[in-house]
């Protein structure tokens, strides 16, 4: 066999590089890497074209026992099967740890430019004792990987044996040639010394030997050529080895630099660990596996155990002395498992020297070297006492919550929206008729538990919560397996994730079947109560209204939604009633109370009710509420008063008849005598005649007064004639100025064109006298009485604001004083017969009732206003006679508006309606508000469009003065007309001080309103 046939033909390294090794990203989880490594064939994640390889099986058949960590084509690390085994042994959760967190194997790579032959790769693998060598380009991008097993395959056994056989053959040939050469030399020496007779034979042998020598020389020459080739090949190999040695020196230098860098990093890491371990609250320790002596204990031991580290160094098992006796067996078992190489985890109690008991969480593990031998025992212990206390509190809270939920028939649930997973408390199933502890069914199964009529409502409510973010609140029915129907109430709150997407819906569900049944029963009972005409009200012990039937709405005016939850005393009484505390005390003591109460309706009308109170008690007999049944007896009381008044009037009529007879008997001689004296002494002086005239006139007036008393008792009848009010006032002034104190001043304002009225002169004279006398009595220290009259046209707008008025022409006669005035409670009763504030014997109480009766009998009406300390004003309105109709055309024409927007504010709906009609008829636009708050809201919305504001001064919620000041803050140039029923003495100075443009007294006519608007809008300058 020729030597050249036995020379080695080794493959290039490029052929042995696996271009598509197993790869994974650093953010992937470790379990994904293990799954890839467990596959039997390499995945085709080629980085280069594989078509140029003729035999890819060489690297495809290698073992998949490593995986490369690659990101964007760059190699970051490598994880081997050995690494995976160590990680699994540490007990971590493979599904939660990422690949980037477990790359522990040192990363050794070979640049593509150095990857010329297999000796380079083999040298690196052998030097670093590794099995895998990644190949990267100059930028560090991964090109492939070389496996040690592939290189071994390249150096197969037959090739190595061939080299050995060739060398042995060369050695044998060399020895054979040497033997032949020695043999020839020996034979030549023997031939020279032999005898001549043997020359011939020797010569023949020589020739033969010579031929053999030639053959040997040829073979030797051939062997020499082969040896030269072998020497040349050996030289080439020596040169290659020299290059490898140079490369190895460079690699050693780089390894030294890497080692120094790693050493520095290790020292920095050790410093960080030292700082971390010395300051962490958890105990960290490790010990020698042979001697089991502690090699390190951090200071946390002293904080947790309350003992010194020195004592633990001296007695390594002294920490066991602190273990609670009840936990010692479990701790002993844990230590046995730990020294057997198992990772352990246990919670137990320790008793400190200061007597405190602490809970600790102890975890132990072993640290192995590269050969898998135990090099250290280690562990971490944490103080979890506070955590245990929290757990205990949580368990107690959960127990209390469970009891409370069961007692309240309530359950808790949570719907995880991304996974469509629903969790609910153990007792939730019982609310749907399922066994307690039943897991939440699927969505379809859950909807089957609901009443068919409520399923769509339920899904719509959930959809609305998800789409609109509203709170989930729904009452619905569920059908139990036994067919019974139960009512449930579910309330839930929607929560969002960091991307503002709905993540979960958490809430509670309560069984409200009993409440629904009670509500149904109450509704049935309430329906029966609503049929009753009486007002039925239930109030709690804090005076809050709980129930209000339709009878109460009909009686008081407030609907249930406005009355319920209101304070009954504040709603139904103008001022605190002295009877209420007495009623409450009696009903609490005896259980019942009955009496008459003066209450007020929504419209402000005062009514009298017969009220019957009954105390309601709960099942334990404790007072719970008061049931009140009110019956309106206002009309009955009025009829009673009218009956009593009629009786008094009848008695008065009888008395007046007798008095009139006696007075007539007295006045008749006086009247006759005065007339006789005038006839008998006609020649006497003028003064005497004047005195006789006064006696005669007063006697006649005395007779007329007797007629007036009879008229009051029998009805106001008399002779009606056309009367000049101006002359009547002048005649009255002749008397009062002579009889009234000089400290009283009179102010008279009567126009020349005052209209006439149709009436009884005696009755109207009596009206004037009564009012003027009352004004005098209100001025004990003197003062001023104003008497004025004017023509008034009452239009439909004014008539609707005053129920006693009718549209038409009137004479307005005003008598006002600046005297003592009257409080509201007196003002409300001045027209009642026999009501008087004067002492007995001074007044009869018939004066003002007579005035009212006379004015009404003449088709007129009276307005009166008064304020204590300011005075009183009476306004008498008497219809004018037909002859004055011609004067209507004398009223100045009112120009039309220009579409200005006017804000009208009044709490009386009729006034708002009339004002709107009047203004719209005269080309104005109108906004209306029923109180100050609503007016402010409207003005804020239409601030730049509103040209003027008509503001009532007395309103609920917010009065006119406050509203005016608020509007002026919003717009100092706002134009305001203040409307009020005040008389000039009732505090309008505050309104004037508020800088309003005009004050329009109530009631007003359409012309008054239009003229006022025209004044502030166009004629204000």
TrEMBL record:
Record domain Response regulatory: where: 901-1017
SUPFAM superfamilies given in the database record: ATPase domain of HSP90 chaperone/DNA topoisomerase II/histidine kinase, CBS-domain pair, CheY-like, Homodimeric domain of signal transducing histidine kinase, PYP-like sensor domain (PAS domain)
Keyword Phosphoprotein included in the entry's annotation: yes
Catalytic reaction annotation: ATP + protein L-histidine = ADP + protein N-phospho-L-histidine
Pfam families assigned to the protein according to its UniProt record, in alphabetical order: CBS, HATPase_c, HisKA, PAS, PAS_3, Response_reg
GO molecular function, one term: phosphorelay sensor kinase activity
Top-tier EC class: transferase
PROSITE patterns hit by this protein: CBS, HIS_KIN, PAC, PAS, RESPONSE_REGULATORY
Histidine kinase domain boundaries: 658-882
NCBIfam families cross-referenced by the UniProt entry: sensory_box (TIGR00229)
Name recorded for this polypeptide: histidine kinase
């Amino acid at each position: 066999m020729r030597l050249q046939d036995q020379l080695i033909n080794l493959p290039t390294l490029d052929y042995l590089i696996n271009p598509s090794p197993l790869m994974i990203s650093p953010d992937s989880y470790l379990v994904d890497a293990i799954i890839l490594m467990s596959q039997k064939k390499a995945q085709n994640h080629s980085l280069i074209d594989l078509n140029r390889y003729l035999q890819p099986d060489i690297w495809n058949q290698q073992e998949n026992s490593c995986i490369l960590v690659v990101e964007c084509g760059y190699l970051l690390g490598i994880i081997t099967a050995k690494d995976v085994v160590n990680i699994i042994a540490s007990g971590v959760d493979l599904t939660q740890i990422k690949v980037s967190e477990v790359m522990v194997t040192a990363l050794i790579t070979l640049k593509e430019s150095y990857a010329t032959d297999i000796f380079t790769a083999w040298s690196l693998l052998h030097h670093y004792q590794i099995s895998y060598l990644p190949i990267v380009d100059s930028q560090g991008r991964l090109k492939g990987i070389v496996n040690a097993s592939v290189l071994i395959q390249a150096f197969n056994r037959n090739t190595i044996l061939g080299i050995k056989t060739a060398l042995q053959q060369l050695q044998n040939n060399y020895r054979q040639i040497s033997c032949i050469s020695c043999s020839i030399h020996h034979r030549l020496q023997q031939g020279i010394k032999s005898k001549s007779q043997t020359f011939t034979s020797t010569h023949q042998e020589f020739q033969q030997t010579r031929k053999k020598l030639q053959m040997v020389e040829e073979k030797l020459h051939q062997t020499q050529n082969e040896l030269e080739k072998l020497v040349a090949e050996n030289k080439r190999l020596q040169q290659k080895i020299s290059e490898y040695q140079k490369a190895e020196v460079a690699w050693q230098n780089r390894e030294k630099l890497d080692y120094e860098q790693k050493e520095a990093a290790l020292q920095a890491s050790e410093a960080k660990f030292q700082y971390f371990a010395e300051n962490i609250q958890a105990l960290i320790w490790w010990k020698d596996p042979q001697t089991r002596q502690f090699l390190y204990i951090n200071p946390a031991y002293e904080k947790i155990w309350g003992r010194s580290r020195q004592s633990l160094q001296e007695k390594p098992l002294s920490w066991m002395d602190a273990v609670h006796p009840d936990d010692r067996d479990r701790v002993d078992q844990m230590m046995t498992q730990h020294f057997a190489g198992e990772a352990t985890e246990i919670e137990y109690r320790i008793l400190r020297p200061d007597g405190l008991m602490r809970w600790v969480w102890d975890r132990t593990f072993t640290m192995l070297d590269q050969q898998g031998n135990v090099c250290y025992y280690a562990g971490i212990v944490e103080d979890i006492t506070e955590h245990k206390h929290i757990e205990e509190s949580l368990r107690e809270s959960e127990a209390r919550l469970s009891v409370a939920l069961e007692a309240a028939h309530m359950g808790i649930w949570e719907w995880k929206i991304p996974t469509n997973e629903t969790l609910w408390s153990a007792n939730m199933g019982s609310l749907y008729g399922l066994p307690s502890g039943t897991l939440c069914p699927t969505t379809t199964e859950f909807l089957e538990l609901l009443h068919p009529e409520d399923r769509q409502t339920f899904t719509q409510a959930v959809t609305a919560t998800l789409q609109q973010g509203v709170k989930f609140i729904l009452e619905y029915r569920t059908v139990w397996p036994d067919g019974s129907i139960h009512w449930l109430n579910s309330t839930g709150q929607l929560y969002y994730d960091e991307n503002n997407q709905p993540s979960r819906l958490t809430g509670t569900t309560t069984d409200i079947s009993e409440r629904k049944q009670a509500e149904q029963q109450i509704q049935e009972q309430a329906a029966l109560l609503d049929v009753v005409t009486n007002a039925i009200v239930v109030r709690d012990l804090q005076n809050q209204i709980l129930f209000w039937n339709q009878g109460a709405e009909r009686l008081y005016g407030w609907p249930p939604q406005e009355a319920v939850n209101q304070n009954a005393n504040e709603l139904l009484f103008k001022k605190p009633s002295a009877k209420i505390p007495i009623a409450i005390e009696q009903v609490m003591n005896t259980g019942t109370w009955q009496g008459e109460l003066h209450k007020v309706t929504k419209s402000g009308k005062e009514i009298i009710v017969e009220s019957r109170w009954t105390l309601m008690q709960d099942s334990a007999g404790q007072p719970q509420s008061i049931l009140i049944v009110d019956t309106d007896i206002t009309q009955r009381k009025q009829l009673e008063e009218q009956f009593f008044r009629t009786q008094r009037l009848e008695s008065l009529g009888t008395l007046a008849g007798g008095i009139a007879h006696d007075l007539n008997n007295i006045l008749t001689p006086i009247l006759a005598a005065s007339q006789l004296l005038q006839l008998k002494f006609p020649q006497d002086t003028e003064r005497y005649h004047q005195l006789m005239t006064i006696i005669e006139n007063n006697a006649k007036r005395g007779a007329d007064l007797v007629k007036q008393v009879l008229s009051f008792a029998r009805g106001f009848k008399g002779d009606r004639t056309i009367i000049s009010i101006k002359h009547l006032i002048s005649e009255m002034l002749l008397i009062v100025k002579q009889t009234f104190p000089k400290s009283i001043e009179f102010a008279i304002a009567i126009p020349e064109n005052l209209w006439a009225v149709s009436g009884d002169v005696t009755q109207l004279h009596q009206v004037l006298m009564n009012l003027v006398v009352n004004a005098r009595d209100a001025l004990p220290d003197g003062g001023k009485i104003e008497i004025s009259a004017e023509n008034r046209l009452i239009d439909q707008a004014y008539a609707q604001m005053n129920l006693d008025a009718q549209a038409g022409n009137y004479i307005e006669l005003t008598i006002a004083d600046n005297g003592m005035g009257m409080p509201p409670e007196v003002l409300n009763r001045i027209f009642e017969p026999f009501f008087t504030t004067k002492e007995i014997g001074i007044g009869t109480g018939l004066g003002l009732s007579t005035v009212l009766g006379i004015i009404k009998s003449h088709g007129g009406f009276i307005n009166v206003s008064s304020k204590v300390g300011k005075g009183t004003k009476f306004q008498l309105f008497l219809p004018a006679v037909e002859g004055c109709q011609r004067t209507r055309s004398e009223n100045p024409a009112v120009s039309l508006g220009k579409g200005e927007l006017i804000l009208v504010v009044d709490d009386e709906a009729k006034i708002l309606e009339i004002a709107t009609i009047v203004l719209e008829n005269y080309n104005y636009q109108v906004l209306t508000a029923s109180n100050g708050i609503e007016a402010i809201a409207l003005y804020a919305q239409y601030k730049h469009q509103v040209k003027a504001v008509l503001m009532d001064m007395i309103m609920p919620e917010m009065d006119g003065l406050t509203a005016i000041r608020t509007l002026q803050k919003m717009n100092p140039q706002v134009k305001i007309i203040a409307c009020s029923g005040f008389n000039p003495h009732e505090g309008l100075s505050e309104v004037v001080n508020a800088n309003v443009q005009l004050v329009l007294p109530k009631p007003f006519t359409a012309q008054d309103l239009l003229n006022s608007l025209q004044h502030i809008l166009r004629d204000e300058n």
